[in-house]
């Protein structure tokens, strides 16, 4: 999560709530072939694509208040795979 500046308490985002939300989103993918998802079938599910997909699934609950009223401005998702990594970063809202 990113913001222009921390809030009055010095917080960008509640890390506990963020981790809970991330665990919920990632649980959708646990031990599943990505071709099992109708919306992903036939897509080239590169690491970059997956980072974008995870971000997309995080955005809706964040915008619905799952992390509270803290006004974060953007969200970056980074996926690590062995020595390689990919990131997707885009504004919220």
What does this 3D model show about the protein?
The protein has 93 residues and is α+β, with helices and mostly antiparallel strands. The protein has one domain: Tetrahydropterin Synthase, Chain A, CATH 3.30.479. Helix content is 32%, strand content 17%. It has helices at 15-27, 47-63; strands at residues 74-81, 84-91. Strands 1-2 form a two-stranded antiparallel sheet. A hairpin with a 2-residue loop joins strand 1 and strand 2 (84-91). The chain is elongated and about 45 Å long. The relative contact order is 0.20.
Number of domains: 1
User: Would you tell me the structural class of the helices and strands?
Assistant: alpha+beta
| Named CATH topology | Tetrahydropterin Synthase, Chain A
The fourth-level CATH homologous superfamily is: 6-pyruvoyl tetrahydropterin synthase/QueD
Span between termini: 13 Å
Mean pLDDT: 88
**CATH architecture heading:** 2-Layer Sandwich
Helix content: 25-40%
| Strand adjacency order, main sheet | 1-2
| Largest β-sheet summary | 2 strands, antiparallel
Q: Keywords for this structure?
A:
17% strand; 32% helix; alpha+beta; Tetrahydropterin Synthase, Chain A; 93 residues; single chain; 2 helices; two-stranded antiparallel ribbon
What is the compact description of this entry?
The protein is an alpha+beta fold. 32% of the residues lie in helices and 17% in strands. The protein has a single domain (15-91), classed as 6-pyruvoyl tetrahydropterin synthase/QueD (Tetrahydropterin Synthase, Chain A, 2-Layer Sandwich), CATH 3.30.479.10.
């Amino acid at each position: 999560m990113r913001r222009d500046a921390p809030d009055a308490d010095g917080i960008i985002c509640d890390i506990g709530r963020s981790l809970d939300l991330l665990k919920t989103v990632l649980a959708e993918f646990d031990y599943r072939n990505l071709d099992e998802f109708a919306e992903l079938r036939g897509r080239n599910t590169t690491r970059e694509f997956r980072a974008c997909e995870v971000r997309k699934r995080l955005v809706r609950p964040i915008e619905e208040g799952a992390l509270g009223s803290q006004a974060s401005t953007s969200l970056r998702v980074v996926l690590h795979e062995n020595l390689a990594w990919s990131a997707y970063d885009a504004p919220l809202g």
